[in-house]
Design goal:
By secondary structure, the protein is α+β, with helices and mostly antiparallel strands. Helix content is 54%, strand content 14%. The chain has four helices and three strands; from the N terminus they run αβααββα. The protein has a three-stranded antiparallel sheet. A hairpin with a 5-residue loop joins β2 and β3. α1 packs across α2 and α1 crosses α4. The longest helix is centred in the last third of the chain and has 25 residues. The chain is globular, with a radius of gyration of 16 Å. The N terminus is likely disordered.
Length: 114
């Protein structure tokens, strides 16, 4: 195992999008705030790197699942704030259902006695 992967959890494809959309249900946020929310709500276990976060945000924006606008942050700096759209909420519901099914399937394989 490479040293860089110790104590690191790799997100399944599509999971990052779901996590970003979920944080935006709680309110509009800039990228740094989204990353902090994911980390805080995961018990500091999930840390989204900038190189993954911003491409995901741009992809979600292209899909129409988030909208972005420039505002002044709490720190007084210009920042791009993202908010979830109605279609983003529908997508989140669909992904959440898919995640529940996948989690149940994995649990069945890992602990067949359950």
């Amino acid at each position: 195992m490479k040293d860089g992967y110790q104590n690191r959890i790799e997100l399944l494809q599509g999971t990052l999008d779901m996590l970003i959309l979920q944080t935006l249900v709680w309110g509009a946020q800039h990228g740094y705030g989204i990353g902090n929310a994911i980390r805080a709500h995961s018990g500091e276990l999930l840390k989204v790197e900038t190189g993954s976060l911003y491409p995901a945000l741009h992809r979600l924006e292209r899909q129409g699942w988030v909208k972005a606008e420039w505002k002044v942050s709490e720190a007084g700096q210009r920042a791009k704030y993202y908010r979830i759209t109605a279609s983003g909420k529908r997508r989140l519901a669909s992904e959440h259902d898919r995640w529940r099914m996948l989690s149940k399937a994995i649990a069945g394989v890992m602990d067949p006695a359950m």
